[in-house]
């Protein structure tokens, strides 16, 4: 099928209630997306290497309708900023608009008229196209309507357009018009880049974790905004995050959801279930074939291939740096230190991991695996952890190198889950946030100061007390706490919550021991989390043990300065009293 046939078929499939997303239409939409690059290659030889294609079936924060865009990365990173070509469907799905458009969000409002005039000055008219905004109300309902603060309608931000009847869509005419628009677009992008040598790209789409949160809700997932904020800030702090907690609480689903949402396709992430029989690095990095000295056996799970793709991407100066994700499910089902030692070591040293010494080829067989590989800075490793009698505890060496996020369910979470009638559909998340991947990587790769002076006194208190139990922290932990607080601040967190989250994720995970040990240290640590700690044992810890104070009451207590950490300390104290032992990880 050519692209015009695909558009006709998609329009027929989609003539249903367009106020919702319908996953059954996704296959035909994907066919259009996949066909368009081939169509462009056929119709013009002048296509810039900067062009990329993406679209949506219409389930995001800003749109209810399907759109398909052609973007030059020098002047646009996605549909919210810059200028680009976009295909839009009419309200009744009888018509198609081929448009030259520009970003419609608040951030780009100041640029709208200048963009329009810039394009007009280069190419005042295109034969067969109408200059100016689309007819009002011509498109399927858009969330960014005139009553919203989010931005302007697509109709208002249009520069040129041409309308087609879909059932009478002629392949020769349509591809000819697409070529005209492409030629103009590339010319405009070239001129813009030439006129703006210090800024050869339009501003990136600002990364907004709230957009991801809204998309997870639409896909049937229930995560609190703060949990998502902490997860993303942790990834930007250091690309190794451990998700620990209750089985079935969404640890793997959150990792999978973000990987699918922020990446362009499945080549950028792998989900690997850790085996109980993993005793060395071979399941992750492969091994030289003992029977054939000229062959290296890569693991079938694709981990090494993913690392190589990530390495090639970050070393390629001609394309944007993309994020790649390695998700290790049930990471502690085997001893982590045995199969993950090379990763733990190179995270700090930056040294390469030796793989093989094969230097020759047998029967002209190409060796695609390098002799050694470093851990690319655009590779994010996420491990999920369940604690029960079948798993192993993490050593301080592992915990010290990660941000550990605890997953728990509240009564409200359960009520929201029961009340929701949305079915889980992870397909809705695919590439929805890919337009933000560059700004996400910019956050993750930027250098930060230690940012610890405001928290100096509290950090020294925690250090002194943790040292008594052999759980003190070093320079690395302190530095990463400062970076974590900076990343949280960039994502909108503020005040005492910054240090609270850092304590919870970097200091408390290493604390474990017997009742005798913990009942001495936990009240003191808990006191550091309060404004007034005079009666901490009587007013808080003893009441928590006897179930006379709830987690909801703790969250509302104005005497508590660090709510997340204090609640965790209360739970660890209760476990120590009732079980004779406690650790950060709970079953």
Rounded to an integer in angstroms, the radius of gyration calculated over CA atoms is 27 Å
Relative strand content? 5-15%
Average pLDDT level: 82
Kindly report the CATH topology of the largest domain: Rossmann fold
CATH superfamily of the largest domain: P-loop containing nucleotide triphosphate hydrolases
Structural class: alpha/beta
Q: What is the terminal separation in angstroms?
A: 53 Å
Give a quick rundown of the structure:
By secondary structure, the chain is of the alpha/beta class. The chain has helices at 3-14, 26-43, 109-122, 171-195, 209-218, 225-237, 251-262, 282-285, 303-315, 336-339, 341-349, 396-399, 411-419, 437-445, 456-468, 475-490, 496-507, 515-528, 536-545, 551-556, 563-579; strands spanning 51-56, 67-72, 83-89, 95-102, 130-131, 160-165, 240-245, 269-273, 287-288, 296-297, 324-329, 353-354, 372-373, 379-385, 403-407, 512-514, 581-583.
Protein described:
By secondary structure, this protein is an alpha/beta fold. It is 42% helix and 13% strand. It contains 21 helices and 17 strands. Strands 1-2-3-4-6-5 form a six-stranded antiparallel β-sheet. α1 packs antiparallel against α2. The chain is globular, with a radius of gyration of 27 Å. It starts with a helix and ends with a strand. 41% of the residues are buried.
